[in-house]
Amino acid sequence: MPDNELVDSFNRKITYLRMSVTDRCDFRCVYCMAEDMEFLPRQNILTLEELFQIAQQFVALGVQKIRLTGGEPLVRNGIVKLCGQIATLPGLRELCMSTNGSQLTHMAKPLHDAGVSRLNISLDSLNSQLFKSLTRTGDLSRVIAGIDAALAADFRHTKLNCVVLKGRNDTEVVDLVRFAIDRQLDISFIEEMPLGVITEHQRNESYCSSDEVRARLSEVFTLIKSAESTQGPSSYWRIAEAPNIRIGFISPHSHNFCGSCNRVRVTVEGRLLLCLGNEHSSDLKQILRSYPADSERLDRAIRDAMRLKPYSHHFATNGDVQILRFMNMTGG
Ligand code: SAM
Ligand code: SF4
């Protein structure tokens, strides 16, 4: 492997890092968290300096895109400053963030000024009661104000993310696309993944495939398959009625996208996870804390971990939990 790139055993080049900056969140979405979540003790969580060191090392190894996620990244103190530091790393093309949008009314502009290039904002429902029941604590009007604040702050190519649950928000997908069209935003529909043990619903009963979502949309819109890719797991479609926006489908169950995987994740505890759907990992926090100024050791640990990257995830559609960590630990 050349000095400045990361390649795994299946010859996939790793150019995309997703970093979870906190496991905490002001929402408790029913597919993501249990109601009474226990969060990690502070000393187990990477400091802002450690998060920056990791980002810096990955960019030196050829990573071009970093997404900050969580938990809710905007509840982490010091997040704007961290964004400013990461955004200026030479070689980084894009610093993106996934957020629930609840803090964007006051944070969209500072994030944009700090150099964050793109936002993904979660939006599962336009019905305030259903939104509250899906997020447990969320306030829809605040999130919509946050989306509008992102537009006002001049964020481009903002994407809405919607996890579709059968019997809950699956009947809303047309309205959500109309909302996206009104604001000229892209939107992705996500199949629920079996991450973490939840009791609020049975995942096998709530499973709604991307094909089903597309069938609903096709009753109203003319869907056209697009060959576009954002180096991510989405497959994209356009609609003849609003050709400027893209509709993405993230289908870990029904369409395996592992063959072209270009990404790895770092959890808020500093575990380098080689695949969302497997437990293969390497402990970067231990290296950072045992050898604080030794960037060579960190470099070696990241390179060595590449051979642990499995070819594929193994999510089942029968609702069985194969991965015990919750999505907020991992960063979705
Ligand atoms: N809090 C931010 C947010 O909600 O966008 C960022 C973190 S959240 C874990 C990232 C994405 O993962 C969100 O779009 C969320 O809907 C999605 N997500 C969470 N749990 C999921 C699950 N079990 N299956 C599929 N997507 C999930
Ligand atoms: Fe929080 Fe995002 Fe998980 Fe919802 S999906 S509980 S907003 S981390």
Q: In words, what does this structure look like?
A:
Helix 3 links the parallel strand 3 and strand 4. Helix content is 30%, strand content 18%. Strands 7-8-9-6-5-4-3-2-1-10-11-12 form a twelve-stranded mixed beta sheet. It has one domain (16-330): TIM Barrel. The protein starts with 15 loop residues before the first strand and ends with a helix. The protein is of the alpha/beta class. The chain binds S-adenosylmethionine and iron/sulfur cluster. The site of S-adenosylmethionine has 19 residues, from strand 3, strand 5 and helix 11.
Second-tier CATH architecture? Alpha-Beta Barrel
Number of strands: 12
Shape call = globular
- Round the mean pLDDT to the nearest integer and report it: 90
The number of helical segments is 11
CATH superfamily: Aldolase class I
Domain tally:
1
Brief sketch in words of this structure:
With 332 residues, this protein is of the alpha/beta class. The protein contains eleven helices and twelve strands.
